[in-house]
Amino acid sequence: MPDATNTDVGVVELVDRMLAGAIARRASDVHFEPEDTIMRVRYRLDGLLHDVDVLPGTLSQGVIARLKVLAGLLTYRPDIPQEGSFTMNGRASVEGPPIDVRVATFPTVRGERAVLRLLYGAGPVSGLDALGLRPEMVASLRQAAEQPAGLILVTGPAGSGKSTTLYALARHIMTATPGRSVVSLEDPVEQRINGMAQIQVTPHGELNYPRAMRSLLRQDVQVLLVGEIRDAETAHIVVEAALTGHLIMSTLHSGDPAEALVRLLEMGIAPYQVVGAVSVVSSQRLLRTVCPACHNDRRDVDHGQMAPPARAVACETCAGTGYQGRTACGQIAVVDERLRQAVLRQAPAGELRRLIAGAGPDLIADARRVLAEEHTTREELLRVVGSVD
Ligand SMILES: [Zn+2]
User: Fold this and answer.
1) Does the structure show a pLDDT above 70 at 303?
2) What's the CA-to-centroid distance between 100 and ligand 1, angstroms?
3) CA angle (385, 387, 388) in 5-degree steps
4) Single pTM value for the model
5) Per-residue pLDDT tens over the stretch 242-277
6) Domains of the chain from N-terminus onward
7) Per residue in 252-268, is it b (16+ CB within 10 Å) or e — as a string?
8) If you measure from the C-alpha of residue 313 to the centroid of ligand 1, how many angstroms do you get, rounded to a whole number?
């Protein structure tokens, strides 16, 4: 038997080191995944998982137990999924503002796995201009945000930067049209923003989206940020609120603006309510941007072609991934007269899509803009939007 005290100290330091490493590289998530004889540690960097370490399997239990203690979870229940959180307050020699860490554990046949989500709460909120979206799209979003009422929908898959866009919109509203009461309902609250009352909802608990919204609308709220429309009940309340003089911003998990409009109809919102409430639907994706430090080295190696990141180039800035940071691309549908008429007669998604594409670039065309500006690679376009041409 190894000395228990020493092992505990070792595990505490090990976990601290893993967390400090993740934070230093601005990882959004850390995975601790048990395998037969090892535990794999992976960081999510700019949206993609990267293996960073392999721990001996003998440490697995200790590492998970330490994470559970930090997050206030039951160490003696390895058989059920658990969720908790803790704050990195000067832990692991991390400097700067506190970072919220959400921990979710799950039993697998090889032992418990843990996934940590790191919320860098106090970072600066990006302005709408800094997201990478093309200027016409930003102008349409800005215009919708300055209206007294309406529904602004931001759509895209998980990890496409929707919340960042909502935060940028909220910031714009508070500076461009001050004096409005702005409240957000979120799960989780990803970033703290001055001037906005932020409420953490619990989708499966007492304060879920529908209940929180109903109460809030009686609280003299003019602008409401709703983290996500997950169900028909929330969709109905959101639309109702937009139709009764509130400005609502929310996200919907859907592919493109046409699909989002069809989803609202499928959730039982009447066509006249959809066109009455929705002002714009934007859809977005995040493309990883090439690392400025090793970008030119890669070009040289590949005779002027942008090289895929698989090539091993020693670079401290991007840890050899070839990418550093992300930029947004997207498509926007402004609900104009033609789109209105098409939704009112419940035109199929294909027809809505053609109408919307007639008014501006679609997702792939806009992703090509980022490629043409040499901010990303062909491989990244293929990965994110599925096409280069
Ligand atoms: Zn690099």
Assistant:
1) no
2) 28
3) 115
4) 0.84
5) 999 999 999 999 889 999 999 999 999 999 999 999
6) 4-119 (3.30.450.90), 128-385 (3.40.50.300)
7) bebbbbbbbbbbbeebe
8) 8
